[in-house]
């Protein structure tokens, strides 16, 4: 449908072509056959390029920012067989237009390379869209209402899932509470024939209804699993709230030993995630940690041409699983147009700052008894580093606190010394690199370690970061994008979706303004320039996945991945950036998304 929709728009914009002699004929055809007759690109272009050398698609009529230093801005672009074949003045590109060429007329708008999302969770984006969006509910009654509506549409027995509820957001009080949390009763009444599973915003607890607990075999005698808690009422009956590992009891009732999605459900998630990416202009995506079983699903989707975006996958698993599978799963280029590549390994050094899980060198300001959590044994991570080198994988380790970052940099340095002394070839990354001790900032550039950051986290979390680590540490080392850049480090940028929306525009706005939701700016001297920010989300992101020769900028020979924006985010006043919309997404020279209400 995207093609047909697009053609119609191309017909509506015929006036600017009249200067080249096509307009009158097209208008006449339009009168005779109606708009759709004119919508056929063949009816209105008709230039003389021989079909074999003609472009499949050209873009012109506005500003094309290439993110290529050699030629930062051009008037026109031509693509053929999925790749960019020419860039330059419109008069040069016109020679490549034939009857079959699809024309994207920018009409003054901006075209840029397709966005590279450098850290997010692909299947989880789809999963989040399948589930009820409970974070939008401002009352418990609202949540119960959403479940009731979903149950009315679901088949009996079908699972109803939601995520993101948070009791602090509610304006009302549930009729019955145990340990300050609602019980299953309202959910059981709203969906008597459907199992219900509602995950808390933190991910650390869930609410289940009676049917879900029945399927899970929960009764008064079910023991608490290690590291988990089945919350019980005064009579000792399960209240419906399952904490930490106890959530697994309900997840496992839903599907299989690990509570994993079935293949058909997983493919549905892939479809929804791909659609969401295209609608946001994301044409390349670094998936930050998928088990090998999910990679199988992604391969299947790639085989069927249903991936939706170009994926660089970091696999996740124990060292035993990695040792057994890394060789088999390494893929530089799977499917059409480099759709799927598997070449990274994801590990975790610590947790998150909000829950005081980030591993710090010195105690938290708001809890002097803790320095956070170390989630991986150092020797375990050393072994992963060894496996990564042995199999030629990129290692990508989650590190948020300054201690976690220091330990990971140390382990990377050891691994590079043990190797052939060329760390930059490995392009290992630290995911988040959120809070750094000033001494460690230059080590990224020195070691060739990529700082894989999420500029939108800074503006979302900034208001409470100084509570956790104080003003001094916040200024010296939190989200220090400019300090890293000035030291020569590669900085790549993502959203960590579904933690944040997979929206490059919001992320870009955060990168260039550091404007928080409370209206204040978080140490604005660390903001990125407009072009720097765009690079971090395009060409530099491509570097983070060894794909800078294939995508990330608009250059001859690269895949024709581009986005048309309704506003020029490189020049509009900062407060207008967030109004910019993705009007068109082009992948491999094909229009794969067109905004319904776009001009
Ligand atoms: Zn993540």
How would you sum up this structure, described in words?
Helix 11 crosses helix 12, helix 14 (378-391) packs across helix 15 (402-418) and helix 18 (455-461) crosses helix 21 (504-513). The two termini are 17 Å apart. The protein is globular and about 85 Å long. By secondary structure, the protein is an alpha/beta fold. The protein has three domains: 2-114 and 589-594, Urease, subunit C, domain 1; 122-254, Diaminopimelate Epimerase, Chain A, domain 1; 263-551, Metal-dependent hydrolases (TIM Barrel, Alpha-Beta Barrel). The strands form four sheets. Strands 6, 15, 16, 17, 18, 19, 20, 21 and 22 form a nine-stranded mixed β-sheet that branches. Strands 1, 2, 3, 4, 5, 23, 24 and 25 form an eight-stranded mixed β-sheet that branches. The protein has 23 helices and 25 strands. Residues 1-46 have low confidence and may be disordered.
